């Protein structure tokens, strides 16, 4: 798939809470086809300490109006600088990058997102419903209710289960403590902190459920040149997450063996 390097125009910078914001961006030309799980590399201007581009999952797209949405967590100087972008300013992106989630073998699927790992789950849910006539089930985890992200958009696509670590909404505890994790599915897709994905993957393996993870490794270039994002696999040894992934079937990853 051909990659683009171009400036997109900020249409809106929407603050969701103290940690998350959404950038609504407009492309001058027709957006390329972006598949669930793919990501962009954003150049951070105005931040002298931010040398590398920042990898960001695609949260949503509007192909008709050439709009691309990025859900971003303020975690350091780079993301903080992006949070200050104003309407009509430009953001330089390399996109679309990486592979995408595969089609499930059946209709019963669970989408598990924790923290920033919620980002690729919206586009995946939209794809499953619109293209495959599948109503997905979501399991979304947050530290507290104040950090819940646009829940109504997920509810428009399928059943939504919420967990919060402090019990302020939904099921109290970790994502893997939720009863939904003990049910049978044809496929589980997950993205979030590595410790969470490993726990989800173990449950999937124990229940003999196919599972794909979207890794959130540091990716400085997105094209396999900087070697920041290497992950060890069963079949190929060390590979670049940005070019071989970010989506992997858990059986390929050595951290499951």
Walk me through the structure.
With 257 residues, this protein is an alpha/beta fold. It has 5 helices and 15 strands. The protein has 2 domains: 4-97, Translation factors (Elongation Factor Tu (Ef-tu), domain 3), CATH 2.40.30.10; 109-216, Rossmann fold. The strands form 3 sheets. A 7-stranded mixed beta sheet has the order 10-9-8-7-11-12-15, with helices on both faces. The protein has a 6-stranded antiparallel barrel with strand order 1-2-5-4-3-6. Strands 13-14 form a two-stranded antiparallel ribbon. The relative contact order is 0.15.
Concise synopsis of the structure shown:
This protein is about 15% helix and about 35% strand. The chain is built from five helices and 15 strands.
The secondary-structure element order is EEEEEHEEHEHEEEHEEEHE
Amino- and carboxy-terminal Cα gap: 32 Å
Oligomer: single chain
- Total domains, how many? 2
Going by CATH, what is the homologous superfamily of the largest domain? Nucleotide-binding domain of ferredoxin-NADP reductase (FNR) module
Unreliable segments (pLDDT under 50, ≥5 consecutive)? none
Order of strands, main sheet, comes to 10-9-8-7-11-12-15
Number of strands: 15
What helical percentage do the residues reach?
10-25%
CATH-derived topology of the largest domain: Rossmann fold
